[in-house]
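Hey team,

Filing this mostly as a record. A colleague (T.K.) asked me to run one chain through the structure pipeline before their review meeting, and I want the input and output archived in the tracker in case anyone asks later how it was produced. No errors, nothing strange. Just documentation.

Input sequence:
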Amino acid sequence: EEIFSLLRELREMGSVEVAILGGEPLMHKDWFAICREVTNLGMNLQILTNGLLIGDEQVAQILELKPFCVGISFDGACPETYQKMRGVDGFRHCKDLLFALTDKGLENISAITTLTKSNLHEFDQFVDLFKGTRVTWQTQMVGNAGERFSNNESLSMEDYNWLIEKIADTLTKHRDLRCNTMYDLGYYPIDPRFRFLHQCWN
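Output structure:
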């Protein structure tokens, strides 16, 4: 009831969008009821999940909710890297889930990739996975906050410069790739070439 009260308060304050994330939001026994309350109150719903708990029943529930967007963590372009990054064998499940949700008519489906030392070399493989599809590839850089990643996974300045050039080149060459650059790559980009991605910062 506390969560529902908070949602009503947010709506009264003028909130238009709520992101349900974690941890893993689907581990909450009332995740569906909470999400439904967001939409019942007329706010846009974002669901950010690792995707591993989503089976046929949860897919049906998500379709019923009609979320504004669903983001699924996808940190490896092959099964081996995915397992190294996420600690589980979920590559095929999450890849199939991403495409299944778009096939069922949901428009804003994102594969969220945190770029680190362990997966940066797979950049082109990620592009090949998602170009020409309706899945948005959302990229963000690893940060030092939290315990999920060791400092060894942080990108060097050399890595960062390579990544900036790679993204700029990819956005030019692959017009059929839906790519969103987030956090320091997008919200307030250090490189001015990316300011067009978030016009509100100009």
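Quick notes for T.K.: The beta strands are 17-20, 44-49, 69-73, 109-115, 135-141, 178-181. The mean pLDDT is 90.
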